[in-house]
Amino acid sequence: MLDIRIVGGMVADGLCDRAYRADVGIEGDRVAVIGDLRDVPAGRTIDAQGKIVAPGFIDMHTHSDMSLLYDRRASSKVRDGVTTEVIGNCGIGVAPICDGRKDELIAYLGTRLIGTIPVRLELPWNSMAEYLSAFDRQPPAVNVAPLAAQGAIRINEMGFSSAHPTREQMSRMKAELQKALDAGCFGLSSGLVYMPGEYSTEDELAELCSVMAGTGRFYVTHMRSESDDLFTALEEAIATAQKGGVPLHISHLKLAGAGVKGQTDRLFERLERARDSGLDLTFDVYPYACGCTSLGACMPPWAFEGGTDKMLERLRDPDVRVRIRHDIENGLPGWQNFARACESFDNITIASAVTDAGQSLLGRTIASLADERGTDPYTCMYEILLQERGRVQILNKMMRDEDVDAIVAHPDSMIGSDGQSLSTEGIMSSGKPHPRAFGTRARVLARYVREKKLFSVEEAVKKMAARPAARLGLSDRGVLKAGSFADIVVFDPETVQDNATFENPKQYSTGFAAVIVNGRPALDDGRETDAFSGRVLHAQ
């Protein structure tokens, strides 16, 4: 007797190019059988008539490191078909951290990772293993696949110093990375547009990567530039992986800013040449022409040296303000200049703030706020950063729809949201976030498959499940076959829809009938359950 029987659906298993009519039987946390199960008894039957039955989606790029602990329902992701979140991206992480550096890391995370969470952040752990054990004690609704964050490792050792690490410091950072890998991390992430990644050299990164050589773990990077210096940054990423002897995964591949828009052919050609040279190279993308980052990321690297408090202190100095404006308007070598990439302050919108006064800023552009205040956009930025103690998230319109479409449709692309798990109520419902946190997978299925017909639903399943699982080395997830873990999504391909918009982002996707995590429904007949059957996954 089966525990669950999913009958009448078309199975897109992540392996075949065409969906096929079959039933799926589940025993415990595994797929027991796929075939004709009409006469097989089961404790529970899910009617999938007219629907697609697919492996649960793996969000390849998230920042749910803390949100899954604050709200383990993961509502915005579960209702969008997600069964696994990959955390620790962009070099931004919450472990390892020694007691003496916790205040620095907490202040930093307020500007990057947890700016939307209206609570005092505490980090009751030191090591990656201790952090991951928090999920074992309080399982979320989805699985967690952790990456080791280079930024956290460097902050733990060096704070926000721009200095090159000494031999002893490098040795200790490599040891911390090894501990994180031993705890199950799938690879090392870097965010070279954020502190302290901006201070890290190619050689430093390659030496860290060398710890993973020959293990199958990979290096995933938010490159040093995705705009004017994109192709230089891409060369650095390729060289880092080659020197370190590891596979390379590029986060949220994009062409951001006037200097690189329209150059998808050149971008794809360089990726292909890297593969032809023998590099194992993959990438993910989110299906929106607008990104999201912190307002503090618009400041040049030198302004952040020493951490968040030092940046805020500098912003009070009129001479420093003049220097920052000069660097934004003229650029610095190797710096991802977010403000210039947006081309106009009309393309920078406030997404979150933490003070009561800051709530009136939500959904407003820097340009409109500056006009309202009778000041220039630079002064407006400085004052908002000071008012909010740096804890401000922004939406930044930097890309062309045509370029995004081409990258999403590329035959090797994977899908990641670059968003936290959020909710329409409770602690994870504040701010006016990027809609990608609510609707990324439904947008791919509705916009790219059903409306634009750029690829098939079977190909979408590979982009959102099978390829991410393969990159992570998870042979028993991301596909549906007998013996695989029962991470399953059931959706209606004719009605699945992302409802989250930039104007009204906190709206759940529709068209998902069931989401099963390790054999237990997290979404049942369109309603969330209290199963909380997610697990911390470990690199194999």
TrEMBL record:
GO molecular function annotations of the record: hydrolase activity, acting on carbon-nitrogen (but not peptide) bonds, in cyclic amides; hydrolase activity, acting on carbon-nitrogen (but not peptide) bonds, in linear amides
Domain Amidohydrolase: 44-521
One GO CC term on file: cytosol
Pfam families per the UniProt record, alphabetical: Amidohydro_3
SUPFAM superfamilies assigned to the protein according to its UniProt record, in alphabetical order: Composite domain of metallo-dependent hydrolases, Metallo-dependent hydrolases
InterPro entries per the UniProt record, alphabetical: Amidohydro_3, D-aminoacylase_insert_dom_sf, Metal-dep_hydrolase_composite, Metal_Hydrolase, Metallo-dep_Hydrolases_sf
Highest rank taxon of the organism: Bacteria
Name listed for the protein in its UniProt record: D-aminoacylase
Organism of provenance: Candidatus Ventrousia excrementavium
